[in-house]
């Protein structure tokens, strides 16, 4: 029987294999570029871990707010506040910022 992992490994392009040579793995055409990309990817992985941690922290703080509001007899969602957040992200990051804020709000809403 073929496992999912075997199937994926067999069908994935060689460039994606972890054991591939650095230049192949990064798409670079020189060892220097491969080295630079490898280092920058490590920084991106570290940044992504921090971003994920911040998102999780945001979710926890949002849950505290929602709990307090619902516990006091209010509604879970506060649309006026959501509009402020959408504007904030859009002002900082442009149109994709709005999409990012919507995803964050989706993650944060409805956790309590
Ligand atoms: O600020 C609030 O009132 C919240 O409930 C937090 C939050 C958010 O995650 O930013 C979540 C739900 C609301 O609809 C608006 C905003």
Automatic annotation (TrEMBL):
Residues in Chorismate mutase domain copies: 31-112
Signal peptide: none
Gene Ontology process terms (BP): chorismate metabolic process
A molecular function (GO) term: chorismate mutase activity
Low complexity bias locations: 9-23
Pfam families the record matches: CM_2 (PF01817)
Chain residue ranges for the region called Disordered: 1-30
Protein name: Chorismate mutase
Source organism: Streptomyces longispororuber
């Amino acid at each position: 029987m073929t496992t999912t992992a075997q199937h994926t490994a067999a069908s994935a392009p060689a460039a994606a294999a972890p054991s591939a040579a650095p230049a192949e793995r990064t798409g670079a055409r020189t060892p220097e570029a491969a080295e630079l990309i490898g280092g920058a990817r490590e920084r991106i992985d570290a940044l992504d871990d921090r971003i994920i941690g911040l998102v999780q922290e945001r979710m926890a703080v949002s849950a505290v707010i929602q709990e307090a509001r619902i516990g006091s007899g209010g509604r879970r969602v506060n649309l006026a506040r959501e509009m402020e957040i959408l504007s904030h992200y859009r002002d900082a990051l442009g149109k994709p910022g709005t999409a990012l804020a919507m995803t964050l709000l989706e993650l944060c809403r409805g956790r309590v």
